[in-house]
């Protein structure tokens, strides 16, 4: 293989999921939670359509035979297992064990997705996870601060 053929590319794929949650920290009083989270602390929760913007970015060498960095069918299956099955049409706080002890902020949703994908993807290829809660609210997570297990 010539050096010219050893090229890196980044591949991104988006999915859409809908979920409800309540922003509430067990470490705070009800009054403190209401002050911190406002209407998002509604005891009955609230929902979001994380519309088509929840994406991940992989960084890989382009395979000289297939011309791909990864088979998109495989990537779609990984995202189905790591994102759609556990999160889509769920009450994050009640249906996803991870959020029983972790406040279901968009930041923590991005961490959950990152950690879930790391278990499925080939090592070292996940570059970032981007979660758009609304058109205005976006979180990008690149595994910073992760503790090696």
UniProtKB/TrEMBL annotation:
Any single GO BP term: tetrahydrobiopterin biosynthetic process
GO molecular function, one term: metal ion binding
UniProt cofactor(s): Zn(2+)
Pfam families: PTPS (PF01242)
Biochemical pathway: Cofactor biosynthesis; tetrahydrobiopterin biosynthesis; tetrahydrobiopterin from 7,8-dihydroneopterin triphosphate: step 1/3
Function, as annotated: Involved in the biosynthesis of tetrahydrobiopterin, an essential cofactor of aromatic amino acid hydroxylases. Catalyzes the transformation of 7,8-dihydroneopterin triphosphate into 6-pyruvoyl tetrahydropterin.
Name of the featured protein: 6-pyruvoyl tetrahydrobiopterin synthase
Species whose genome carries this gene: Menura novaehollandiae
Gene name of the encoded protein: Pts
């Amino acid at each position: 293989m010539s050096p010219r053929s050893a090229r890196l590319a980044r591949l991104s794929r988006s999915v859409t999921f809908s979920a409800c949650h309540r922003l509430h920290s067990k470490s705070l009083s009800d009054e403190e939670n209401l002050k911190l989270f406002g209407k998002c602390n509604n005891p009955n929760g609230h929902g979001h359509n994380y519309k088509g913007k929840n994406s991940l970015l992989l960084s890989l060498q382009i395979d000289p035979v297939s011309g791909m960095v990864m088979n998109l069918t495989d990537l779609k299956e990984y995202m189905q297992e790591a994102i759609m099955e556990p999160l889509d049409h769920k009450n994050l706080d009640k249906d996803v064990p991870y959020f029983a002890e972790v406040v279901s902020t968009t930041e923590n949703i991005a961490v959950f997705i990152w950690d879930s994908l790391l278990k499925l993807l080939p090592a070292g290829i996940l570059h970032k996870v981007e979660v758009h809660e609304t058109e205005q609210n976006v979180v990008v997570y690149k595994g910073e601060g992760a503790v090696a297990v």
